[in-house]
User: Which sequence fits this backbone?
């Protein structure tokens, strides 16, 4: 990856980067996406003036991860990927302002933790400096458009997109030797040892995928330099593609959409519906899409489904159903506590029951963080409704509270310790 650190002048003009960093890509695409999100979270924390929480970690909310990745990763997946990111070294070349080359190394992250509702992490000093010196947080990593980057399913085209996106301003990448290109792409000498195979399965295939992608905001062309008949270096010509694309700063109401919704279309929807109504309708549309997929009737035009859902306000029906579910769940909590005699109150005194339930909940919130996180995961498990409620509402969801308070571990840690 190339990190260009530059100052944006009052009137935008093309400047030669003062510092250029090349990172070798050896982690998986999913792990790289986590890393990009963590760098973004660090920059936002830096701008806010509060870099770390009470534990000394910068925080990336799991709600952000879920919105950007399109699903909520399990704790086991997070632990495996975060540890891989921590262990994987970044070996990179840097050009100082005086042109003196230096070679440096670090991990992608220094430390990590997975807690209830967020990922905590710390970055190596050199990465902190790089992110802090980027002038515009909305152009972190060279205006890398997440909605475009995240549509690439393959690691090679995603990495090539990032490289070319860095140089869209000058319309061409630097000339890369075949060896340097392999290092940048994270391809060892044992993979595609012949350039013919490397060109076919990495270069040509990635260029084709970028150019044919409806989401891509650039087009790319590979140019080769030969000595006799042997290719010794290559360069990529880059042209911006005029289209409407999403960016980091889009309206969060559309974050859960699984297909691109243009900025113009977003504005049209927002004039007709509130952000909350749109968010709820998109969630309901996603449920419909999942149901159709289970019935072997995959939806081929998700954008059309989203439009229908927003125009017909599907979210209002879902909100009504959720209110009914929450009222029912609250009644179940009270009934459970009364049946088991965990709260010594008369059954007819509903307000006292509610107060007792709230007292138990506050006691739960006072548990050590790791115990809370463990209990939440055990109670929610793989239950889709609970997981969706946890992602949408968090611990404020009565349904989630009900599941937690009825779990045996809750009885052990909270009720029986009164």
Assistant:
């Amino acid at each position: 990856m190339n990190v260009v650190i530059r100052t944006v002048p009052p009137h935008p003009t093309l400047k030669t980067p003062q510092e250029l960093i090349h990172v070798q890509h050896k982690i998986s695409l999913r792990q790289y996406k986590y890393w990009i999100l963590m760098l973004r979270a660090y920059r936002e924390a830096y701008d806010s003036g509060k870099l770390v929480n009470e534990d000394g970690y910068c925080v990336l909310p799991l709600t952000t991860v879920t919105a950007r990745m399109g699903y909520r990763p399990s704790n086991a997946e997070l632990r495996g990927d975060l540890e891989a990111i921590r262990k994987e070294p970044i070996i990179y070349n840097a050009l100082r302002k005086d042109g003196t080359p230096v070679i440096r190394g670090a991990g992608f992250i220094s430390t990590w933790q997975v807690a209830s509702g967020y990922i905590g992490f710390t970055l190596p000093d050199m990465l902190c400096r790089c992110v802090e010196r980027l002038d515009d947080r909305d152009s972190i990593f060279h205006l890398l458009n997440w909605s475009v980057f995240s549509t690439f399913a393959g690691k090679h085209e995603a990495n090539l997109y990032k490289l070319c996106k860095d140089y869209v301003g000058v319309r061409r990448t630097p000339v890369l030797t075949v060896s340097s290109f392999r290092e940048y792409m994270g391809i060892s000498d044992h993979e595609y040892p012949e350039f013919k195979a490397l060109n076919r399965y990495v270069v040509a295939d990635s260029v084709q995928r970028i150019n044919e992608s409806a989401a891509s905001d650039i087009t790319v062309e590979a140019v080769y330099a030969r000595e006799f008949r042997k290719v010794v270096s290559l360069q990529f010509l880059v042209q911006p593609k005029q289209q409407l694309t999403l960016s980091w700063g889009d309206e969060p109401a559309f974050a859960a959409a699984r297909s691109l919704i243009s900025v113009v279309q977003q504005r049209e929807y927002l004039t007709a519906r509130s952000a909350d109504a749109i968010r709820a309708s998109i969630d309901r549309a996603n449920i419909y899409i999942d149901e159709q997929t289970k019935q072997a009737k995959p939806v081929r035009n998700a954008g059309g489904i989203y439009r229908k859902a927003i125009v017909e306000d599907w979210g209002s029906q879902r909100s009504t159903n959720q209110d009914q579910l929450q009222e029912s769940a609250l009644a179940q909590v009270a009934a459970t506590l009364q049946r088991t005699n965990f709260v010594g109150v008369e059954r007819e005194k509903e307000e006292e029951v509610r107060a007792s339930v709230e007292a138990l909940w506050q006691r739960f919130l006072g548990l050590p963080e790791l115990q809370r996180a463990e209990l939440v995961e055990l109670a929610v498990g793989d239950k889709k409704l609970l997981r969706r409620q946890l992602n949408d509402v968090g611990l404020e969801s009565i349904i989630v509270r009900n599941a937690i308070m009825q779990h045996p571990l809750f009885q052990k840690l909270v009720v029986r310790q009164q």
